[in-house]
Amino acid sequence: MSEDVPVLSEPLFDVFASGSWIFLPAGPARGVAMELEAEILDEQFSWCENPHLGEGSGLLVLTSAMNGWMLLHGATETVGWAAGLLSEQRDLYRATIDVRLPAMSWSFLERGAPTRSVSVELGDDGGLVTRTSGHPLPFESDGLDLPGTGAGFDAFFYPVAILGEHGVTLRDLEVALDRPSVTLRVS
Predict the structure, then answer these.
(1) What's the domain of life for this entry (predicted)?
(2) Within a domain: 3
């Protein structure tokens, strides 16, 4: 692997390999909680040690700010609902990666609705099947640097490359793993 290709560390692979999240402009955690009419459960765990990650629907984990952005991590159905609501006030990205299938999808949302969506999954013949809707975003033609996984899953981590396109590097994500996160419960 070339030295200029970013490589996902094992902790980042673990966080992103099976989950859904929203990538949104940074703002106060309490403001996000108010928009979602969510209860703040705790603010005591780092992102990588948060016991609520992967706990199921109704829970979201909000990261600390990273270069003007933050992630809201949770179950796919909760993330989908929250993305629709939060995108009424700001543009954002919603993404899901599941390397067990393997499959990946991401969407860009504006004014409460996706305006660009892309999904990739493994086809019956072993090749990648890509589905798209909406007009491509400018960065899609730039050839983003996909993070290397060392396990053949690079194409499924395209949403992580989108973070990099917006100034959030793998190093920023590594640092954020150890920074405080906020757990929200939505009803």
Answers:
(1) Bacteria
(2) no
Domain total in the chain: 1
Backbone φ and ψ for 116, nearest 5 degrees, come out as: -150, 130
Confidence of residue 35 (pLDDT cuts 50, 70, 90): very high
Flag whether 5 is in a domain: no
Instruction: For residue 82, give its domain range.
Output: 10-185
**Under 8 Å CB-to-CB from 33, ≥6 apart: which residues?**
39, 40, 182, 184
Residue, of 134 and 187, whose pLDDT is higher: 134
Q: How far apart are CA 75 and CA 128, in angstroms?
A: 25
DSSP-based helix, strand, coil % in the chain, nearest 5: 25, 35, 40
